[in-house]
Write a structure and sequence with these properties.
This protein is mainly α. It contains six helices and two strands; from the N terminus they run αααααββα. The protein folds into two domains: 86 residues, Arc Repressor Mutant, subunit A (Orthogonal Bundle), CATH 1.10.10.10; 47 residues, no CATH class. Strands 1-2 form a two-stranded antiparallel sheet. Helix 3 packs across helix 5 and helix 4 packs across helix 5. The longest helix has 30 residues.
Length: 134
């Protein structure tokens, strides 16, 4: 975590930091930007010159992360296919903020538990030794 805080982060790096998405996932996310009607898995694979299965795995991770939405399109003669588009920046930012707030609360609780467990007794200077608690 310290390394992440000390390096220069860009906007797209949030996908890695918050959602654990890899470079391919980020490339797929960027390929979906500015395409109002959305793209199919085949469209994404063609744009990125990768295998369909590779594009599908990245799209699935993006959908699971909540930064891309899937919409079903129906053929007139029957059958269907899926189209993918990114969520609006406001929607994605709101979800990332909620995840960050939840993480912050969880880490705060863990820090308190650490202090309670290893706080030890204060010496005459007010320093606490790191002795295991009860």
């Amino acid at each position: 975590m310290r390394d992440d805080l000390e390096r220069d982060l860009g906007c797209i790096d949030l996908l890695e930091c918050i959602h654990g998405l890899n470079e391919r996932d980020q490339a797929v996310f960027q390929a979906l930007q500015g395409v109002n009607e959305g793209l199919t898995v085949d469209d994404v694979a063609d744009r990125l010159e990768c295998e369909r299965s590779t594009a599908y795995r990245s799209i699935s991770r993006l959908v699971d992360a909540g930064v891309v939405v899937q919409r079903q399109e129906n053929y007139d003669q029957g059958g269907y296919y899926y189209v993918y588009r990114p969520r609006t920046p406001a929607e994605a930012a709101r979800e990332m903020q909620q995840l960050l707030n939840s993480w912050y609360a969880t880490v705060g609780q863990l820090i308190q538990e650490f202090e309670d467990r290893y706080g030890g007794e204060a010496d005459e200077r007010g320093d606490r030794s790191l002795q295991p608690g009860p």
